[in-house]
């Protein structure tokens, strides 16, 4: 059995299971899973944890204005492929707004993923099974 | 009383999760830490803990630590049942793992692992394409279209209230669509898995976010139904399937007795 791993965010469509990015991992391992203190009390080693909990989505006026701005940008005819100067400028503002409005965590996640390099793709099997109980 | 004779380079065991004792660790596999130590198994009876040595003086939680925790558990979940521990479980040493963790809770771990035999967690995550979902909402809602026209015809300052109203309407409409699309996904997945957990949305354009517990042997079927859904939503929702993962969403910590 090999772990099916494919780089996430391929060129559109669905291409089978993808590997977890840092954002996926954070959603999962920080507040799910068994809590060790419930099982081990005496010999716990308290190690400082650097992680912060910053994932809650709160809809705010900011969110609303962002959506309104996105609606505003929709007005460029979708089938107008010819790019004139105004369109190019639109692209630039779009790009600028996008990076500005990106959630802090998401942006951080991307940076960290870069930092991690190809680690995500070379997920390896860390254990195997000797036998399986029938 | 023993008071820290060795305060420097004090090592401890980082515990990733609990597995059946017939699991073998890959001698090449390394865990959390810099430099990382090998992943080993501490066994007791039918259960074992996946552990690696770490320096007890170094704070944990760097991106590489988080990724490694998940990677060790997820890689295991494809070959054996595993009870994942939440990130950051550190115990004094091997004796503590054997006596306090494994011996003390042997039977409950064993029965939980038996229940999980052959199963793993998968996460289905979908996000609306911004342009597509906005066009959809504008075409369905007269109110949204009216607000859009009003915003366009007024100077920016004068239109502020309408812009907020438009954005709020869109936000609420997306929330309603998320609920519908999540229900649809649940219906589609129900036949392909054993259990489902709908997660809270973590992004304003989340279309669906849920974890499901499925037979690893039936992963093809899961891929097929999720693939169909993805095809149906092409251009509208970007759908991802993550897995096999350790069953983080389906293990429950026992309540302290008393």
From TrEMBL, chain A:
InterPro entries: Gas-vesicle_GvpA-like (IPR000638), Gas_vesicle_GvpA (IPR047870), GvpA (IPR050530), GvpA-like_CS (IPR018493). It holds the Pfam family Gas_vesicle. It comes from the Bacteria. Residues 79-103 are annotated as: Disordered. GO terms for molecular function: structural molecule activity. It is found in: Gas vesicle shell. Keywords: Gas vesicle. Coiled coil: none annotated. The keyword Transferase does not apply. The keyword Protein biosynthesis does not apply. One of its GO terms (cellular component) is vesicle membrane. NCBIfam families: PRK09368.1, PRK09371.1. Belongs to the gas vesicle GvpA family. Gas vesicles are hollow, gas filled proteinaceous nanostructures found in some microorganisms. During planktonic growth they allow positioning of the organism at a favorable depth for light or nutrient acquisition. GvpA forms the protein shell. The gas vesicle shell is 2 nm thick and consists of a single layer of this protein. It forms helical ribs nearly perpendicular to the long axis of the vesicle. This is Gas vesicle protein A. It comes from Prauserella cavernicola. The gene is gvpA.
Automatic annotation (TrEMBL), chain B:
It comes from the Bacteria. Keywords: Gas vesicle. GO terms for cellular component: gas vesicle. InterPro entries: GvpL/GvpF (IPR009430). It is found in: Gas vesicle. The keyword Cytoplasm does not apply. The keyword Transferase does not apply. GO terms for biological process: gas vesicle organization. Belongs to the gas vesicle GvpF/GvpL family. This is GvpL/GvpF family gas vesicle protein. It comes from Prauserella cavernicola.
């Amino acid at each position: 059995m090999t772990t099916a791993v494919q780089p996430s965010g391929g060129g559109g469509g669905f291409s089978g299971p993808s590997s977890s990015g840092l954002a996926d991992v954070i959603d999962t391992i920080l507040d799910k899973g068994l809590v060790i203190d419930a099982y081990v009390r005496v010999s716990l080693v308290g190690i400082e944890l650097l992680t912060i909990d910053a994932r809650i989505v709160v809809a705010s006026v900011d969110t609303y204005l962002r959506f309104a701005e996105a609606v505003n940008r929709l007005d460029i005819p979708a089938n107008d492929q010819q790019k004139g100067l105004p369109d190019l400028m639109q692209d630039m503002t779009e790009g600028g707004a996008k990076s500005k409005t990106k959630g802090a965590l998401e942006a951080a996640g991307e940076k960290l993923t870069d930092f991690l390099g190809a680690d995500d793709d070379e997920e390896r099997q860390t254990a195997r099974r000797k036998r399986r109980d029938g | 009383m023993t008071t820290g004779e060795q305060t420097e380079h004090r090592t401890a065991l980082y515990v990733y999760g609990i597995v059946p004792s017939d699991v073998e660790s890959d001698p090449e596999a390394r865990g959390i830490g810099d430099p990382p130590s090998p992943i080993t198994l501490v066994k007791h009876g039918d259960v074992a803990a996946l552990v690696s040595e770490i320096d007890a003086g170094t704070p944990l939680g760097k991106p590489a630590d988080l990724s490694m925790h998940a990677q060790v558990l997820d890689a295991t979940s494809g070959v054996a049942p595993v009870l994942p521990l939440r990130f950051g479980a550190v115990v004094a040493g091997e004796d503590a793992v054997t006596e306090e963790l494994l011996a003390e809770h042997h039977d409950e771990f064993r029965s939980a692992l038996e229940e999980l035999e052959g199963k793993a967690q998968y996460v289905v995550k979908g996000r609306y394409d911004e342009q597509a979902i906005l066009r959809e909402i504008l075409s369905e809602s007269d109110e949204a279209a009216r607000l859009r026209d009003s915003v366009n015809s007024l100077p920016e300052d004068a239109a502020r209230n309408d812009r907020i109203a438009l954005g709020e309407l869109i936000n609420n409409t997306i929330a309603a669509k998320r609920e519908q699309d999540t229900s649809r996904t649940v219906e589609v997945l129900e036949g392909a898995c054993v259990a489902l957990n709908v997660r809270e949305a973590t992004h304003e354009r989340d279309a669906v976010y849920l974890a499901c517990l499925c037979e690893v042997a039936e992963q093809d079927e899961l891929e097929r139904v999720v693939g169909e859904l993805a095809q149906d939503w092409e251009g509208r929702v970007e759908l991802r399937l993550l897995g096999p993962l350790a069953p983080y969403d389906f293990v429950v910590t026992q309540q302290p007795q008393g």
